[in-house]
Every structure is written in structure tokens, then in C-alpha cells.
């Protein structure tokens, strides 16, 4: 029943999320989660028109009820016994580079509620579907992939709001990799170390040329590669950066 | 005006918090923060009787208003311009070793609200006092010390709730060390890697003898050592474990 | 002149080295380096018979002269201006799990001479060819890949001999990634965290089944994946382990 | 028989080594090891004149025979059954910040032979004396301390020669901490992250003032602190840097 397996992408926007959704849509029906329909409507239409299948659901990852409700919608759409081949957590929030004492409490909350709590809620919502994917003998081991950042491994001055959430998310991914790997679910974490080439960043770093930014499609290829690793060869973590990036 | 400098300890209980409070009380008036007065009343009395000065304040570190109110109380007690020589964050919560899908949402929230948000709120509340300590030329550089755990650097299976909060706290401490070190405040993080010898754990690991557990007074000595390092020689992180601990 | 680009594999044996050589031989002529001809003769024959091209050269990676001589042989075979699309360092030595005071000096030397010095000599010998590969506009960025182990990131009791060499090799790979990435060479390090399924280990871990061991062909696929990443999306490090591995 | 316990310092020069020797000489007779007598003669004289006891021995840590011979000299001087309270490895070599392909083979060898092999030989030579120190019930747990650097944890571009040796040394220290901690020997590693204030560096970083450099006496105090930690509270690793250091 491979046809029942779906892919779920949280944090769909103009960059990584959309590229990942397109990539996985070539093989699976995809569910696009974002707070605002604006962020998934065009993409869902594009995927559906080009022969794939996509549905968008408004959901706030920092609200466990919202995610539970999204799963109900998924089950209505794809059947009560639906399994997932992939669940990708690409949401983040709370980035503000400022002196610590000037960062409003809300910014910290946003980072921690989206990255830490959001990652947890998303995992609790999707892991049952991924385990169903294992039962249903998905061709590739079901994958739960988290998008990290430089700030997932390095906590620079004035970056506490973003880094606290991202470190927590990385901790989550490591614990889940250890718990769910033996159950057949492949949990991974990608450290995106650089600027992603999206419309919003197009004007950035002009002096370094087009190769100074990460390709969102390239990231999607790498996520797909993680997904296709066999159970004998699981990777928990990859880092990704432009060749010219200083690190 | 060294006499105006105080030490603030959050998360006072029967173990590390109490030992740290006693140690710093030998030099500074200490402020004891805990949610329940039970946790600081006896200790405050003990310190006051033995020639030191201690006041206890009920405060919930996961609630920024509660911490702001505690600072108001501190200023009423020690003067509007009071500086701090040390602020020690020893609170934690949300420890539950269980399959991830069986951990209630509340446990995750507790860990993240106390360790991640609590650490942030405590730092935003105390750093202004520590910076005053710098201005007032404290004998030793004012110190902001965070108590970490094995789970601050390793996120084991079934430990996601505790680890997410603790990794976030470590990220916070690293960012603050980089931002406030140049301003004269010494920010440190201690990885407590083992069982602490307190009444509650006395019966644990009997087969390994008394040396298999960390001494809370020993931890307090190490925090004091961190505090006395000069500005030319700051340590951000130490790990601490019994010699016999397997790691 | 893509036809001039070659792949060089050091440390060809029955496991990872052979699988990597076969994988890259599908696209490039491969040079097989091993101390003993026994280790490459059969493999070279197999590749040559199946339509690829392979030559074997006896070389000791811990001896810089031996590697320089190997490069001379390569140039005689493939032309003075030959470029490389990939150079893979898969050699290691000096594994002896024993109390530190009982490990003979020679074992430490073997580990350090092969893993640390060998990695350096191999890199100094092959990087000029990889940079030629960049000039010659190889389809995929030329790759320099190092095989690491659990002992590359964790130095357990009684594992000092192996770990010292492996940590040094990882340091080498990180420095080279930073220096040569901007020059177009993709330097990577793979942490192989588990037992590889080769004839010698076939009898190991029988209780865990065939999925408890890493597939050498799987590792080769992952090295190929690293090689095909575009310059916008370089990965320095991956970890690889069986899903059931405890870590 | 505390009087029989000695301290051994390898890599005595004008900076950390001398400060450490002076600090430990306040409690123990000290043995000063350096390749050139110039490096220890003045210091030995200074210590002996000021009421301590010091002997200097010419030794090359990268040569195991030289270290074995030094131990013979120590036994002749202090008795066959002499125990050690501390052994501090402060030697290093092979620092050359240059493009990798321009670094001569000898520089790599120097780094690796001194830092990696030297650390191993020094440990094999001194651990039997430290274990004797445990038997002889030294007041503080016998300590084996290694001096590391920024390059022990970060391997920057053009720093491969220094970093390979330093990462290997850190691996050694971690393995030994795990093996010998349970036997009562406290093994530690100090990451010195900054410029040390010694005559040779006095002119460096003038713009940052005297506090921009690490105090060698401060490092010595920290090593002494590590030595005095009880068996219940061992620290494996500390980092040390000036408050103003960017990291």
C-alpha cells in the first residue's frame, strides 16, 4: 500500500520548505503546513497542476492542538490508517540579533515556542504516522528531518533568542534518532550554515556571486538523499554550506 | 562599597543550591529564590544564625513577572543601586525518562519553561545587577553561573524532555559569555555529570560507595573558584563527575 | 577533458575501500593504493574486466616518499596534467583495545603514522591533482573524503592508540575543508559508527541480524552523494550507523 | 610519606610551564623537563633559592627513550619508590600558519611527534609514578594535566599542522581520564584560548591593554585548582580565555 504513504512538510515558505515539498511531491502526496494559507496555496496549486498531489493545512506548530487538528484533517483526506514516508520540520522563529537586555521576552518565546515546543509537538503528531509507514513497508525508511542552522551548534553573542530554540531542536532530534532509529524511523538534523538563495536574500552578499548562497533545491536533494539511505546506513546529522563560506 | 554586593541563587533545594548559597554567604549577603518557602526558610535561618545574611524570596523562574518582582524586593532590601557579585541559576524541571510518545506535553513545557525560558528571565533580571557589580568594582568579576547536566551535551533516547531545556540553557550561557565577558561579567556553565549526594539519592548506587556521587559542597567550591578567576583567565565551561563515573 | 579525471582510493581492502573503488569506477578510472598488491590485484582485475579502468599501486601512506612515487606512476599512466575528481583516504592502523600502560609504543606509532601523518601525506600528494580537477571543470566538484570512526569523536578508555590518530585525521579534514572549499575542492569526513559488514566481521553480532552492520556499498553510495553535491551545498561531515546501533 | 611525592612539568619555558612549576613547587619538589638546559636552569635555581626544591632534566618528549631515561634520573634522585602528585604536559611544536601545500613535512612531524607521540610517551612514563602517588595516599588526587589550545577544538584553515597534534593530545587526555579516573588519577585538559602574557608576546595586541592576554600565573592557579578537586568532583576539561577575547 505504498500509495497511502504521504510526506508532511511544516514551515513551508518561499525557500527550503517549498523546495523540499516539490522534491518529495515527485514520489508522495504532500501535506503542506503553514500558519498562513498564503504560504502554501500557490505551491499546492503548482504541485497539483504538475501531476503531483498536495494539500495545504493552516497550522501553528507552536500549538499542539493545532497540530492534532491538522493530523485529523490528514486522516480525513488520506484515510484513518495513513502512514507517512517523511515528515520535515522546517519552521523557525524568534531571530533577533540584538543586545540580550534589549530583546523582548516575546522574541525569546517565539523562538522557543516554535523551535523547541514546535519541534516536539510536530514529532508527537507525526511519529505515529511514520511508524505506520514502517509497518506498511515503505520503500525507503520513513524519515523525520529537522532543519537546523549555524545557531544550532554555535551560540554567538546577541544570538541567544534564536540559538536557545535551535539547540533545543537539535537535542530533540538526537534523542529521537536514538529512540526511533531502532524502530525503523530515520531521524536527521541538517545544519544549514549560510544564507539560502531565496527572493528575500537575492540582494545579499552580491560581492560573492551566486555561489555564495545555499541552493534551496540543493537542500531538498540532500533531504531526499537522507530519506533514501537504507536502515544499515543512517546519518543523523549533516552540515551544509556554500564552498566559499567562512566557518 | 563591597558591602553592597550580593549573591543571588535560584533553585535552592537540599543539594547544590543550598551548598552554593552557604559557600557564597561566607562573603556576600545571599538572596535565595525558590518557588516554595519550604525550600529556603531553613537555609536562610541557618545562614543568618551563623553570622551570614540571607533572605528568601518566593519566585517562579518560569514567570518573568515573578522574577521582576523578586528584583524589586531585592532593591527594597539592599538599596536601589545594589550590585551583584554572583547570580547562580540552579533550577531545572521536566525530567521524565519515558518513551517519547508517552511523555505528556506538560512535562516538555515544564523543562523548557524552567530551563530555557527560566534561564533567560533570570539572566535578564540579574544581569543589570551584575553589571552594577562591575561598576562598583567587585573584588572578583561578577559571575553568572548556570548548572547543567549530562543532558546538556548528550541527548539520549527517552530523555528529550530534559535535554531540550538543558541544551537551550547551555546555548544561553554560551551566548551570554560571549556578550558579557567583554563587559566584565563572567558567565559559566557547569556540566554536572553524575548523581549528586543529597538525602534523596543517599540510597542510590550503594554498591559504588560514597565516592560514586558528586559532593554538593564540592560543586559549590568549584563555583566559587569560577567566581574568583581574574578577567584575564575566564572559564566558560567545566564538567564535573565522580572519578569512578563511566562516561 | 573529463576523460582525464581519475579517482584515487587509499586503503583498499575487502570492505569500504573496495566498494568505494567500484562505485567511483563506474565514472572514473580508479587508482587503487594499498601496501600489499594482494589487496588491490583482484579488485583491479574485476573492475577492468567489467568495463572500467583500474590500476593498483603499492604504496605506504605513512611514507611520504612512497606516495610521491605513486603520484609519479599515476602521471606516467594518465599524463603529466592529469586531474583528479576524487581522492578517498580509507587507511587506518594501530587499533588495540588494551590498558594504556600495556600498549606498545609501536601501536601508537602505527595509528599516528597511518592516520595522522598518512592523511597529511595523502592530502599533500593528491590536492594538486584535485585542484587540476577544478581547473579542468570536472562535472562534480573534486572531492577529498576521509573515512573516520566512532573513535574520531569519542575517545574511550583503552582506545587511546586508535583515537589519537583518528582525531588528528578529523582535524586535518576540517582545516582542509576550510582552506580548499573556497578553491572548489570538497573536503569531507565520514564518521563510520558501527561494524562494517565484511567477510571478517560476518560472524560478529549474529544476534542482531544482517541489519546491525553497515553496508560497505552503502558507504560508497554516501561518498558518491558527497561528491555530487554542488558548490553551493557542501557537507563537511556525515555520521553513518545502522538504525539499530546504540550510540 | 607525602614528602616523597613530586611534581613533574614537561615543556618548561618562559610562560605557562614556569608558572606551573613555581605554583606546584610551593608544595612539592618539582622536576623540570625541557630539551635545552637554558629553559630550566634559571627557574630551578630560582625555586631552590626561594626554599623549594627543583631539579632540571634535559629530555625530548618526542623520544620515548629520552623520557624513560628522565624517569631513571628521577628515581635516582627521589628514590626507586617515588610517587608523583602531578605531571603536567605543557610541550607543543609544529605551529606554522601557512597554505597547506606549502607546509614542509617536517613541521607536521614536529607537531605530531611532540603533541601526539610526546603526550603518549610522557603519560606512559609518568602514570606509573602517579599511580604510586595514589597508593601513597597523596593529600590531593594525583593529577595528569595537558595544556591544549584553541586549535585543540577548532581546526582552522592553514592550521592543520598545529591542530592535528593538538586534537590527538585532547583525544589522549579524554581516553586517559576515562581509564585512570576510576584508579584515582585525575586527568585533565585545559583549552588555552588566547595569547599568553609572556615576554615574547608583550608587544602583541597593545591596543587591547594588559587584560587581553592570559596570565600564566592564572593558568597555574587553575591547574592547582584542578589538582585539589576531590575524587567526587573531577573536571576533565576547562577552557580559559581573557574576558575580552572574541570566540
TrEMBL record, chains A, B, C, D:
<dbReference type="InterPro" id="IPR036291">
    <property type="entry name" value="NAD(P)-bd_dom_sf"/>
</dbReference>
<protein>
    <submittedName>
        <fullName>NAD(P)-binding protein</fullName>
    </submittedName>
</protein>
<dbReference type="Pfam" id="PF00106">
    <property type="entry name" value="adh_short"/>
</dbReference>
<dbReference type="InterPro" id="IPR002347">
    <property type="entry name" value="SDR_fam"/>
</dbReference>
Amino acid at each position: 500500500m505504498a500509495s497511502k504513504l504521504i510526506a508532511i512538510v511544516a514551515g513551508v515558505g518561499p525557500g527550503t520548505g517549498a523546495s523540499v515539498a516539490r522534491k518529495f511531491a515527485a514520489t508522495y502526496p504532500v501535506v503542506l503546513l503553514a500558519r498562513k494559507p498564503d504560504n502554501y496555496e500557490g505551491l499546492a496549486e503548482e504541485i497539483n497542476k504538475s501531476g503531483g498531489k498536495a494539500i495545504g493545512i493552516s497550522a501553528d506548530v507552536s500549538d499542539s492542538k493545532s497540530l492534532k487538528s491538522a493530523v485529523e484533517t490528514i486522516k480525513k483526506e488520506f484515510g484513518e490508517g495513513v502512514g507517512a514516508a517523511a515528515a520535515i520540520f522546517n519552521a523557525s522563529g524568534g531571530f533577533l540579533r540584538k543586545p540580550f537586555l534589549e530583546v523582548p521576552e516575546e522574541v525569546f518565546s517565539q523562538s522557543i515556542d516554535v523551535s523547541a515546543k514546535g519541534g516536539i509537538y510536530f514529532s508527537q503528531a507525526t511519529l505515529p504516522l511514520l511508524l505506520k509507514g514502517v509497518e506498511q513497508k515503505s520503500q525507503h525508511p520513513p524519515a523525520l528531518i529537522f532543519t537546523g542552522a549555524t545557531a544550532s551548534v554555535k551560540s554567538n553573542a546577541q544570538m541567544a533568542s534564536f540559538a536557545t530554540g535551535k539547540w533545543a531542536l537539535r537535542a530533540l532530534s538526537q534523542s529521537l534518532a536514538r529512540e526511533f532509529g531502532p524502530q525503523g524511523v530515520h531521524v536527521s538534523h541538517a545544519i544549514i550554515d549560510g544564507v539560502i538563495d531565496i527572493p528575500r536574500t537575492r540582494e545579499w552578499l552580491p560581492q560573492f556571486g551566486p555561489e555564495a548562497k545555499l541552493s534551496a533545491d540543493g537542500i531538498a536533494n540532500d533531504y531526499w538523499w537522507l530519506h533514501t539511505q537504507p536502515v544499515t546506513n543512517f546519518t543523523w546529522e549533516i552540515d551544509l554550506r556554500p564552498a566559499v563560506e567562512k566557518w
